[in-house]
Amino acid sequence: MPSVTQDDAPLLADLMPWSVAPPRLGRGWPAAPDPAALKARWDTLMKAAGPDREALFQPTRSRTGRTAVGQLPRLPGGTERLERASGPCPDPVRVLRAPFDEQWLIPDQRLIDAARPELWRVADERQVFAVEAGPATGRGGRARGGAVGTDGAGGAPGPPLLATSLLPVFRPGRVRPLYRRPGGTEPNLAPGLSEHLTARLGREAPAVDVLAWTVAVVRPGPGGLTVPLTGDAGMWDAGVEVGRRMLWLMRRDGERPRLPGGRRPYVRAPLPSHPSAVRYDRAEEALCFDEGRISPVPPAAWDFEMAGARVLERWCAARTEEAGPGTLEAIRPAGWSQTWTSELLELITVLALLAALRPRQTALAGSATADPVTPAELRQAGVLPVPRSAREPASVLDAHEEGPEGQLALI
User: Which of 72, 76, 86, 388 has the most other CB atoms within 10 Å of its CB?
Assistant: First the structure.
């Protein structure tokens, strides 16, 4: 059987050529796990004036209270300079603040150092963002905010590519939207790729199936993430099946995922209003919040890592950590919410089910790629090299965007 080496596999950067650096907030307070806390932070900022407002805002070289910027695409919001701003908080929107961590963000470009408007223009219910996880920065250990594991065991690296329906606002990986325009139109694929795969496979290869295959088989390579491609219909079907389930779990669309009976996590002891310590008991498969207790939490869910940090550990830390007094981040919910508990139970389920797919991913990655579609073949077919226009954002002019101080934005 012909095989393909890692060097013979196409680069993800060529197959999904348009990519954008993730938004950079520049300050932590405009994002939070609780939307009510964000509105309270905004109200506190609006009540302050002069130097007090500027200090609460936390200016950077990119953003101060005097910076003039326009609205975020497709969203209402003020455009006067923040030092003169008044009025209610823009309605917070749901974003992905960290891998698998859905939080809320005040969608106001005045608060964000680098908002990446080109991403906001294509963010809608049809969009899927593929996010490179970035290199590992550590192994297991202690997350920001104090959640600790008691066993010292290392984590299990998650997939190198994360898919989300929400706008990702975390670093370091690049963001590759599946579609270049709103409404799920103009796939962000190398021109001619789907048609070439369709001819080789003898069946349609739509953009979402190409993404599913990619999520299932993508791997690090010397030049970046690589995606082995196959012309074998049986292997393609197996990979797409795994990838579709991964996409469903990562995006959490539609029916809620469930573990088999007896393995579903439950609250065994009520969680306190203000947990001060979060730890994992591996022997009991329990996540402990002081005297509160959730179990069973499979070790595979606790060990699940993205970018070198345990996902559950980081998620819990974001909701239990202390913030410095006198800052807007110190404005937090009165206590742990039932919503967070429900989200945590679902996250445990998602991570456990994704971990259960690893053997099938490993089998795909470990076997020789049948009937490989190599970069040389794609060059011969005219799919590669990708034209420069495919690496740039498409023109999206179907919505009015207000510029600084209420002026018409030219885009």
Answer: 72
**CA atoms within 13 Å, Cβ hemisphere of 169:** 29
Residues 60 and 3: their CA atoms lie apart, in Å, by 51
Residue the block writes with tokens 């348009």: 18
259-271, pLDDT tens digit by residue?
Answer: 988 899 999 999 9
Q: Give the global pTM.
A: 0.91
Tell me 389's DSSP state.
G
The dihedral formed by the CA atoms of 375, 379, 381 and 385, expressed in degrees to the nearest 10: 110
Strands across the sheet containing 31-32:
31-32, 101-105, 93-98, 167-168
* CA angle centred on 143, ends 332 and 168, rounded to 5°: 70
* Half-sphere exposure of residue 266: CA atoms within 13 angstroms, side-chain side: 7
Cβ–Cβ contacts within 10 Å for residue 356, how many? 15
339 CB-near residues (< 8 Å, 6+ apart): none
Q: What's at 264, amino acid-wise?
A: R
Place of tokens 């139970």: 345
Give the up-direction half-sphere exposure of residue 365: CA atoms within 13 A in the CB hemisphere.
21
Give whole-number Cα distances, 132 to 22, 197, 236, 340, in Å. 10, 24, 22, 26
